[in-house]
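Hi all, long-time lurker, first post. I run a small reading group and we've been trying to get comfortable going from sequence to structure in the token notation. Rather than ask abstract questions, I figured I'd post a concrete chain and ask someone more experienced to write out its structure so we can walk through it together at our next meeting. Sequence below, copied exactly:
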Amino acid sequence: MSISSGGRFFTVALFAVTFSVTPILTERIGLYEDTDLMEILDVNNFYDKVINGNTSFVVEFYNAFCGHCMRFATPYKEFGLQVYGWRKYVKVGVIDCSNQSNSQTCRNYEVMAYPTVRYFPPHPPSNYIGEDFFRSMNPQTMKTVLINKLIETQKNGNLSFLCDIQPYKNNLVTLDSDNLLTFVIIDTADNKVAQELIIEYCPVKKVKIIYALNNNTALVEQFKPISYPSLYRVTNNNQIVLLASGNNKTLFTEFINSDLHTAHLTPFSIIDITTKIYNMLFSRGEMPKDNAIVYLSDLEATMRYSLDHEVILRNAISGDALSALKSYLELLIEYFPTSIRGKKFLKVISEHMSNSESVSGEELGNFINKYELFLNPYVTKLKWIGCEGSHPMYRRYPCGLWTLFHTLTVQASTKNLQAFNGEQVLNTIAGYVKHFFGCTECSEHFMQMTTTIKNNVSSFDDAVLWLWSAHNQVNQRLAGDVSEDPMHPKILFPLKAHCETCRQNDEWNKTEVLAYLKRMYSTISIKQTPNDNVNIEPLNMIASKHLIDDSKYIVFDEEEWKIDVSTCMISYILSCLVLMVLFYLLVIKKRCKKNKYIYFILGKV
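-- Answer (accepted) --
Happy to help. Here is the structure in token form:
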């Protein structure tokens, strides 16, 4: 009985711990919706749709927190709309690699940067990771790239169900009795209007469009085009009728549709992108929170996402990347504001890799998950508070990463330990950004700025100010960008309302700025939700606190020791019950057998 009770309690406790540490990673954020007319891929459907599907696929692997991914989303959606009518032959899809459940899929396809776009032909080998697809902010450019991919795929014997988009080689146009209408487009090799029209009209039965190059001498002499491309209709009695010429796809479409209407055929319905209204509005709820407050919940959510997602996305971590990861963990061990369990958790991960020359991302992820359950290292519920955006696509992890980096530089300056110097702190941060931060463009910009560290940083305080200056440069560059949260505009900080003495005559007073940054990032709020009434606490208290009998610190004691205390109480009660039962069986019942009279128990009179 006691064993089953204890087992049930342990199961419930383990269940509670498991679900208490995963909320920020399982929530679907995403930059795309089903209404965007593209395939939303995930771990459950990727293989069936992309690898086992009958169509070609263009897939964007993206990170919902990546600013460049946000900017790329709009042209990619337009590209998806423009080729939506081609979905019998090729589909456009996306997979969110920032979603924890998709991590293994992104790792399997060796996605090292975001956004990454790949092309997959129908039924590729199971180990095929796709062919790089040129991404552009111009949807028409991507459409041209896709046409070239389809041409190559068909040339290799695939996509046989797609109408012929290869150049016509015959000297004469042969009419097919199954077709009511036959069109011929003569064009140059670098133009793709003909193939585009062939793909779009391929679903229309009894219509054939032939594409010939201007180097097909026999056809050119027969059709005598004046300019390229030129559109012709070949009648049933082999008469050649010029319909249109010039690089004007819209005009070609109008003539083809007109002939289809005359022949009582239903024209192909081409999607006009201008009629598609994007729902980019979102609910504007509460007013922006005070960004001058640093929340432990944001810091822990950020640290967990960096270790439990970004780092382990790599198939293998070795060389400079492994060295950068080891240094990052050492920096967190020294300066991250955490509980004793949290520090132990970081040390366990660091020791696990200390003698390794290469680490598997999958194996490291399993190791981290195992010790998260075992040590329960997080003080908070891992909810975004100060870094929560007005919409899930905004702020969150990028905001948290800046907050984490500022906190580490300030804590290093405050502790002034020998483990790192100011330059090393920044280089360690740069190492993480270079090798693990999911936004490729952001990483490249940051690494360009780090070239100034060597000549400008000679102390811990210099490191604090360098990172502050770099952050403001990024804010200036991204102000008004599509990745900017309209409710949290990217502005130079600190605001005058938060630090009046930090500016003098529109110039920064760096002495005051340094003092402000140290106050802000060495004082951490332990609120679990925005409406908590828990006080702000100095960062060093958080790091050293354990079992202090003070109501102000109960939040930490309950979070850190709740399972241990509950386990002890249950064990104590069960032990007492077992002893009482044993006493009854071994003593009382034995004595009752010797004397059958009940008054023996009560005592003789």
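A couple of things your group might point at:
The longest strand covers residues 56-62.
The radius of gyration is 33 Å.
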